[in-house]
Task: structure prediction
Amino acid sequence: MSRRWTEEDDIYLEYFIFSKDSKFEVAAEFLGRSLNATITRAAIIRKKREEYYICRKWTEEEDNYIKSNYKLWTYKLIAKRLNRSCKAVSDRACFLGLKKNNSLVALDGEIRKMADEGIYAGDIARKLQLDYETLRGYLRKHNISYQVMPQQESLEKARAKSPMNMYKFRW
Result:
């Protein structure tokens, strides 16, 4: 049978949420509760406060981390590294004035030039650090003809980069 949450447990959990403790496992162990029970109770405490919503304050260090990595990594990965929710990281990036997607219109000249040179769409996406599907959508929308790498060539490239290749295995 599970024991009831005490006022002291709730006070510790509130402190835990406000402090920089990074893992719920620490709080669960301290309280002698399961991880799921601790997370669930924290969610209940956060929501039941009418005057404010309890959440950990953003630090300057976290803001700098988001600023330096938001274009390189997904919000999901950043959230995992910061022990935050994906939505929290996304909202914080928006608050900081950061935009995830590059304006393809600004890159239009470069995209058209590379496409005219016969560079494959995948290579264009890599060179401009764009998502491949986003680039393909842009190319289609603006009627820009592009080349897709033939499957055989794509396989050969992938195999050349494969760690198995260094052992000279036969495919």
Notes: The mean pLDDT is 81. Residues 148 and 154 are 10 Å apart (CA to CA). The longest helix spans residues 35-48. The two ends are 58 Å apart (CA to CA).
